[in-house]
Amino acid sequence: MLFYLTILGFLITFLIVLNLRTSNKANLYLFFFLFINNIYSLSHYAALNSGNKYFVAVMLVNFTPFYLLLGPFFYFYVRGLVYDDHKLYKKDIIHFIPAILILINISPYLFFSVDQKLMYAAGVIKNPANIFNYKFLFLSPTISFISRPIFAISYVILSASLIYKKGLNENYKNMQPKLIYRWLISLIAMALLLYFTFLLFSMIGYYTRNIQETQLRSEYILYGTGLGLLLLNFSLLFFPNILYGLPQLDFAMLKQKKPIIEIDTSIKKEVKSFEISDDKLSLLSAKIDAYLLSLPYININFTLSVMSADTDIPAHHLSYYLNEHLKINFNTWKNDLRINHVIDLINSGSYETLTLDALSKQSGFGSRSSFINAFKIKTGQTPSEYLQNL
């Protein structure tokens, strides 16, 4: 069961990667957090259930430095979402020091021969308590094993305090903060459930040094651990809109060097607030309208990334605006603009000197079929039928 749950977790986690182009870049930290979490789960399946010494030799020690990155990546994700800033800073190097120390600690194992690693794996399969008997450079396996959930719990609590200090719950009545607040509280609750129960299981395992007795004493604790892993792996299915991130439109637009429109000083005072106010929406709409005056969409290579680069508005802000407020996806919105341009050309008499193919290419369409389909969706008629009805 643990194996299949972990594999499904890997598949769902990679959905984040597929959405990274148009989503908040802070989701990259969420991906690493969930990915490492599933590697962590897979390593325990290898040691306790697989019975395969090759699998154990690969999974049990080699990935241990990554487990100390679970907490930092969780914190970076929450911080990136709350402050709408996914960047790492020089001072963040401190969060990677424990993982570096563990890498140094296990370095002798990394240079073991295959036979030595298989011998160690065979001993763990025979009795999982042998995990605690191996000698590393300066930290014992016991300290390393039990410190992992403690380290992760500390970062989850740190992330919770960050949300509290930022006062995200104060704007709970607004749509987007409500979504973000619920998501982060759910994420913190799921992580605490997983790591607290796993910490209890680890402590019982160290005390008994017997896997059968540990599992017997920890039956209900393991249910909690499994539930925490299940909820974390499938949480995005219940919060799909979270991939748009938290738009803080005034802040993003004030960072550009040459703003297209003048920003009212009263709006500037609301920079980095969590509500999506009418003023912010008007500001974003005006900025996009000004950008569209240059007809960027008639370029065949016009994409959301291009628009983001041209306007200095983050792509996930644009996605959020189109999907949540205009109720339209980017491709449909782009094609509608192109069809409107074609219709303007037709109404100006250009169809008398240009073929429909030429009109479609001048409007940014790459193929005749995509032009006809988009035209019919927009007007309910094919281009030929539209011309006949003029």
Explain what this protein looks like in three dimensions.
The chain is mainly alpha-helical and 390 residues long. The chain has a domain at 2-244. 68% of the residues lie in helices and 0% in strands. It has 21 helices and no strands. Helix 1 runs parallel beside helix 12, helix 2 runs antiparallel to helix 5 (70-83) and helix 10 (175-208) packs across helix 11 (211-217). The radius of gyration is 27 Å and the shape is elongated. The model is unreliable at 249-275 (pLDDT under 50).
Give structural attributes:
mainly alpha, 390 residues
Structural class: mainly alpha
Largest sheet: none
Report mean pLDDT, rounded to a whole number. Answer: 82
- Estimate percent helicity: 55-70%
Tally of individual helices: 21
Radius of gyration: 27 Å
Query: Spans of 5+ residues with little confidence (pLDDT < 50)?
Result: 249-275
In what range is the share of β-strand residues?
Answer: under 5%
Number of strands: 0
The CA-CA distance between the termini, in Å, is 65 Å
Principal-axes shape call: elongated
Order of helices and strands: HHHHHHHHHHHHHHHHHHHHH
Described by its quaternary structure, the protein is single chain
Question: Topology, please?
Answer:
Elements: H1 2-18, H2 27-50, H3 53-59, H4 64-67, H5 70-83, H6 97-105, H7 107-110, H8 114-126, H9 141-166, H10 175-208, H11 211-217, H12 219-238, H13 249-254, H14 265-268, H15 278-292, H16 304-311, H17 315-325, H18 330-347, H19 356-362, H20 368-379, H21 383-388
Helix pairs in contact: 1-2, 1-12, 2-3, 2-5, 3-8, 5-9, 9-10, 10-11, 10-12, 11-12, 18-20
